[in-house]
From TrEMBL:
Residues 53-85 form the Stomatal closure-related actin-binding protein actin-binding domain. Pfam families: SCAB-ABD (PF16711). Residues 34-57 are annotated as: Disordered. This is STOMATAL CLOSURE-RELATED ACTIN-BINDING PROTEIN 1.
């Protein structure tokens, strides 16, 4: 190692991995990806955990919390749109009332 690199590394803090962390394997998974990142070939199962396909499917599913959050956001947006529609209808009603009042007053 060169002295320049040693100097830079001395000031850096490296946090150790917690002792209660366990990894399913000590290597990278072996699979091939196709178009749209679909898994084409899955490695042989070794019963150490869920298959790569199961993990991929699980990742794609929305949790109940995610669905509730989306529902709340859509409910809020719907309430805002309903309020805007209500204000627009009131504005149109007032405008038409003034218009018809003006038309009634100008016609003999």
């Amino acid at each position: 190692m060169s002295p320049e690199i040693e100097e830079n590394m001395e000031g850096e803090v490296i946090f150790p991995v917690s002792a209660d962390v366990s990894f399913a394997s000590d290597g990278f998974p072996k699979y091939k990806l196709g178009p749209d990142n679909q898994i084409l070939e899955e490695p042989k199962e070794d019963n150490k955990g869920p298959s790569l396909k199961q993990l991929s499917d699980q990742h794609k599913r929305l949790s109940v919390r995610d669905l509730a959050c989306k529902f709340d956001k859509n409910l809020t947006a719907t309430a805002k749109l309903a309020e805007e529609v209500h204000e627009l209808c009131h504005f149109l009603y007032m405008t038409l009332s003034i218009f018809f009042s003006f038309m009634h007053d100008t016609n003999p």
